[in-house]
Amino acid sequence: MKELLAPLKTHNRSVLTLLLLAAFIWSLFSVTWSRDLVHAGGWTTTVQIFEGLIKPDLSPEIVALAIESSWVTVVYAVTGMTVALIIAFIFGILGSGVLFSSHAVRVIAMGIFRGILATIRAIHELVWALLFVAVIGLSPYAAVFALGIPYGGILGRILADMINDVPKEPIQALRAAGASRLQCLLYGYLPLVRANMISYTMYRFECSIRSSAIMSFVGLGGLGYQIQLSLSDLNYDEVWTFLFFLIAIVVLIDAWSNSLRKRLVL
Amino acid sequence: MHIVEINNLSKQFGRKIAISSLSFDIKKGETVALIGPSGAGKSTLLNILAGSIPPDTGIYLLDGKPIQQYKNRRELANKIGVIRQQFDLVPALPAIHNVLAGRLGEWGFFKSMLSLFVPQDKQAAANALQRVGLLDKMHDQTSRMSGGEQQRVAMARLLVQNPEVILADEPVASLDPARAEDILEMLTKLVAEEKQTLVMSLHSVEYAKKYFSRIVALRDGEIFFDLPTEDITKEHLTGLYSLKELSQE
Ligand SMILES: Nc1ncnc2c1ncn2[C@@H]1O[C@H](COP(=O)(O)OP(=O)(O)OP(=O)(O)O)[C@@H](O)[C@H]1O
Ligand SMILES: [Mg+2]
Q: Which of A183, A189, A190, A194 to mutate to test the interface with B (most CBs of B within 10 A)?
């Protein structure tokens, strides 16, 4: 039986690829590509949007507003990432199982903590935002936790995986030198994953800026909120001002993370 | 008198017998080279001696006490230290922390955490690095060091750990001959100074004869010969390696 299944297994991947491809093509057909899909006044709007792109509104009030909203967006993202890192650190380390000596405990703990991480990241930050706004109202805490919890789930999962993928020789050597499991974490696992974890966190930080901006659509202030207001007033020149600020933040973070990464190369 | 006593030790991996009924003793202060063809069981034996894998059968007394009774890692770390190829260092740490890792058995959690920020026992680390000739590289990232330098950092860690027995599994396998001799010379000298016992697996018979007082040859998990270095003749060695060819056919 096993011999019969073996060739199937090697073809599994191509079968899966074909299936996914078929699903994709089928989904194209299930969209009704009729004219009503396209906005009737689309052309004039497009022209207006491009005009805004060339002449963004740089009046002092709008620029001041953009700076203030950028600040709010960045603050939400930074605080949210701090919460995320705390969650990731605690649950990621526990979910990697390296702190538990008994095999049974390790398996159970990995199941529980990785399960928690999977659950909190399965829910999108916007959904978390709506939930928190419903519970605690339009407070900054809603934004911070809405960001921090799902990002903590993502970062925690990555941290746990990285810890599990660490080469085993250095850890064995530490054990042989008399190190406890916690000491192995300090002198082995954490330094071994540090560089990768920092660059992944920086990448996620960039994403969190975007999320933070988007999240303010639910009314939590920040760049997204301003974009929404200007959009509903059809002030595309203002929209572009805010968008340029958003792009600038992301570019700055990218530059920062590049310089960090350079210093951290192994 | 005997720091290591093993009797009828065997170890099997699935159907493969890696070690079969080995018995021998090692005196305090001896330097033993383990030689033998690939797959002879040298690494398996060293891993059992280090306590990192349990034997299937047999008795292993370390300093008169069965290895299973060393429940405490720290107690074991005082008796036995291990050095392998240079991959057992943490590349992302500066040399000093890799060296101070030899102290982890004695330190508690908070002291070891503090040490990552304010190195504790810095003097011990400096002395050890001085003895392996790397004092000036104390704060260098380990990953930026050459293979030979990394192996010397590992030796400095052993100096800080200061176990009674040092087990070395092909510590010079990935070094060029000049570097390899450097490391062997340094390690055997340090072991003599500290009155430690050394057991090292090697692929080079020449180095085994040059640096060790006793040579144990393994073949197919059994002892092929176990002799003081000066008693070893060409016949012994051709026997060891020609048999290897026979068994491979
Ligand atoms: N973890 C393991 N699982 C299965 N088989 C193993 C394992 N470790 C060792 N073996 C087998 O046991 C035998 C002895 O291996 P060992 O690594 O001790 O040899 P060695 O003398 O160190 O060889 P080399 O000189 O190549 O390092 C080999 O046949 C090997 O395939
Ligand atoms: Mg080996």
A: A183
What CATH architecture applies to the domain A57-265?
Orthogonal Bundle (1.10)
**Dihedral sign of CA atoms B192, B198, B204, B205 in order:** positive
Mutating to test ligand 1, I would choose from B9, B11, B42, B44 the residue with most ligand atoms within 8 A of its C-beta, which is B44
Helix or strand run (H / E) with residue B45: helix B42-50
CB atoms within 10 A of CB B228: 11
- Ordered by start, the domain boundaries in chain A are 57-265
pTM: 0.82
Q: Which residues are CB-contacts of B245 (< 8 A; sequence separation ≥ 6)?
A: none
Burial class (CB in 10 A: 0-12, 13-18, 19+), B22: buried
From CA B68, how far away is CA B71, in angstroms rounded? Answer: 7
Domain range summary for chain B, segments of one domain joined by +: 1-71+166-249, 88-163
Pick from A265, A173, A168: nearest CA to B150: A173
Given CATH 3.40.50.300, say whether it is the number of domain B1-71+166-249: yes
b/e map of A56-74 (b: 16 or more CB within 10 Å)?
bbeeeebeebbeebbebbb
Average of per-residue pLDDT values in chain B: 88
Locus of tokens 């099997």: B12
Chain B residue numbers with beta carbons less than 8 Å from the beta carbon of A188 are 90
Residue nearest to atom 1 of ligand 1 (CA): B13
Longest dimension (CA), chain B: 58
* Stated length of chain A: 266
pLDDT tens-digit readout, A39-85: 667 778 888 888 878 788 788 888 888 888 889 888 989 999 999 99
**Measured distance CA(A185)–CA(A95) in Å, rounded:** 13
B215 within 8 A of B36, measured Cβ to Cβ = no
pLDDT tens digits along A122-149 = 999 889 988 988 898 888 888 889 999 9
CB-CB contact of B22 with B55 (8 Å): no
- Sheet containing strand B222-228, edge to edge, reads B80-83, B165-169, B197-201, B31-35, B214-219, B222-228
Q: Are A199 and A190 in contact (CB under 8 A)?
A: no
Helices B177-193 and B147-161 sit at what angle, rounded to 10 degrees?
Answer: 10
Under a CB-based contact definition with an 8 Å cutoff, are residues B196 and B168 in contact?
A: no
Reported ipTM: 0.87
